[in-house]
Amino acid sequence: MSHEDGGRPPEGGTAGRGWRFETKAIHAGVAPKFETNATLPPVVQSASFQYETSKELADVFDSRKFGHLYTRISNPTVAAFEQRMAALEGGLGAVATSSGMAAIFSVVASLARAGDEILSSTSLFGGTLLLFNEVFANLGIRTRYFDPVKPDQLASALESSGDPPRLVFLETIGNPKMDVPDVRAMAELATDAGVPLVVDGTLTTPYLFDAKSAGASLVVHSSTKYITGNGSTVGGVVVDLGTFDWRQHRGKLVADLARKTGDGAFLYAARRHVVQNVGCCLSPFNAFLHLLGLETLALRMERHCSNAARLAGFLAESPAVERVNYPGLPDHPQHDVAAKQFGGRFGGMLTFRLASREAAFRFIDRLGLAKNLANLGDAKTLVIHPASTIFHDCSVEEMEAAGVTPEVVRVSVGIEHPDDVVADFENALEGIE
Ligand SMILES: *Cc1c(COP(=O)(O)O)cnc(C)c1O
User: Fold this and answer.
1) Atom of ligand 1 nearest to the CA of 236
2) Radius of gyration of the chain (CA)
3) For 41-96, what is the HEC assignment?
4) Non-local CB neighbours of 366 within 8 Å, separated by 6+ positions
5) What one-character DSSP code corresponds to residue 295?
6) What is the pTM of this model?
7) Which residue has the CA at smallest separation from atom 7 of ligand 1?
8) pLDDT tier, 77 (very low <50, low <70, confident <90, very high otherwise)
9) Considering only CA atoms, which residue is closest to atom 2 of ligand 1?
10) Burial of 323 by CB count in 10 Å (0-12 exposed, 13-18 middle, 19+ buried)?
11) Ligand 1: nearest atom to the Cα of 203
12) Could you tell me the distance, in angstroms and rounded to a whole number, from the CA of residue 201 to the centre of ligand 1?
């Protein structure tokens, strides 16, 4: 896929007919009409929206008439962000949430209920693993796991389920395992079995990965990360890619809705049954910051990718480093899949192994430019020791399945000058011997 030549077919409506990715990232989505003629969507910082007559308000509540009611359900600034995300993914629509975790929660809570089973990749972000193994397990929703780079495992998990699982979940690049599933192959297996494929596209963003043409059903993002791009905001979003016929879904809620309301059934369930009732809505100000971030997503992703490739090359040559795990290196087990799937770019994240946990700690403590913190997708280069931080609540088995061992350092490569990033790592590595 290439975005230079337009990349994907033009969408209609407010999505910006015929616009290319970079243009949609700046202009798509309806800005709330405001008397100021502001160029940016105004932050409509209001909990509620008033109507002239009782009849009007009743009509809006009953969905006989479109309008915003209360920001826990919808808000004009949040809607502008949702519409821009839907345009960038080429999807039907989107629901924004208070965080990436809330987006994943909303998807599972819309599609599964107590007694149901879901299938998930083993290679997951730590928070997602805990959400599945603790929160949903306690609510009676069981998760069975498969290795996302072994389609056979997914095929046999789908075959061995009596009652079909309600969804299949995987990350486009496993965080922090850095493994890359062949999403098209996984989407075919899932949807041939009548099960929607949900992908977490946080590490790739719609700029690197076109989830819709790979056949995924829903894509979730932690918009905290690259979408914002500067570490200022926590948020999330789910986009319905319009590829799954929800009338065929085996979960009761969305299938019943689809028979009544048609294609918008999943989005309605996520917004009106989950986000509205749980209260995990995105704030208008955070939506505004996400919209600002999207304007420069394409440029930033190019630089994240080229800087990461440069740092990976440097680390691979360094005698203190045991192994570098970056999909852009030819020795990465899914290098070819990644090259094809992400249009010749490989993302801004990498991990590498040092001699020991102590060496990893010493290395991190000696960095000057790179920051030691729990986030990714920031303009600034960030590092973290996953085993003692993001995964500290997980079991050894859960960690190993996610590729986390005590010697591993995770890096989110920023958009600084690459020479400065490499110099910082070079200097820190010299001190750990
Ligand atoms: C950060 C992250 C999440 C969770 O998102 P929050 O916005 O922190 O709630 C989910 N998936 C992946 C891959 C992430 O990196």
Assistant:
1) 7
2) 22
3) CCCCCCCECCCCCHHHHHHHHCCCCCCCCECCCCCHHHHHHHHHHHHHHCCCEEEE
4) 427, 428, 431, 432
5) H
6) 0.94
7) 100
8) very high
9) 222
10) middle
11) 13
12) 10
